[in-house]
Q: What sequence folds into this?
């Protein structure tokens, strides 16, 4: 039985040879492109206050009042100075890529801890009220539209309890981005390997 070759075998051999030589480089480029796309999804979600299309819970009236007292008019959650949003990074190590918040110290607290506290919620945090804090709380209450007299009279337990609500910004973005990720990844590799 004989074999008959049909078609342009030299072109096929050249394509397959180039594909074999460039496979790792193509996978690396496709992986980096996916990672950068995911980073963009996370950052855009924070900026638009709807990561992955899920709205972030707004700030408490007390937080907004404290921001106004500090001279800051912004109302977006998780974006006061944008340290957290700007820390979203892509780190490539061989054929593995990390997308998220790396460990970096900011004023004594790691950004990754701040991200975790906001992603999953945190608390309760119990803070003992000092005289100076009591005065601040009275001003804060007045800024919120309440009566200063109510906060100044006290009669409470002498503590403030704070709870940071869950404001997921990574998980919704990951969930949205992973839809179609396999197809995009394979399409990128294919278009890179078989450029004519």
A:
């Amino acid at each position: 039985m004989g074999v008959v070759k049909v078609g342009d075998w030299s072109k096929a051999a050249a394509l397959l040879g180039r594909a074999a030589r460039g496979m790792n480089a193509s996978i690396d480029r496709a992986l980096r492109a996916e990672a950068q796309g995911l980073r963009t999804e996370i950052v855009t979600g924070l900026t638009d206050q709807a990561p992955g299309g899920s709205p972030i819970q707004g700030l408490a009236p007390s937080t907004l009042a404290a921001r106004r007292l500090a001279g800051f008019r912004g109302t977006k959650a998780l974006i006061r100075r944008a340290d957290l949003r700007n820390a979203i990074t892509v780190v490539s190590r061989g054929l593995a890529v990390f997308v998220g918040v790396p460990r970096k110290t900011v004023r004594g607290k790691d950004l990754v801890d701040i991200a975790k506290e906001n992603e999953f919620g945190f608390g309760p945090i119990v803070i003992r009220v000092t005289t100076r804090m009591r005065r601040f709380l009275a001003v804060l209450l007045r800024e919120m539209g309440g009566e200063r007299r109510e906060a100044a009279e006290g009669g409470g337990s002498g503590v403030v309890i704070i709870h940071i609500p869950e404001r997921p910004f990574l998980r919704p973005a990951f969930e949205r981005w992973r839809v179609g990720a396999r197809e995009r990844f394979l399409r990128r590799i294919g278009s890179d390997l078989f450029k004519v």
Notes: The first helix runs from residue 9 to 48.
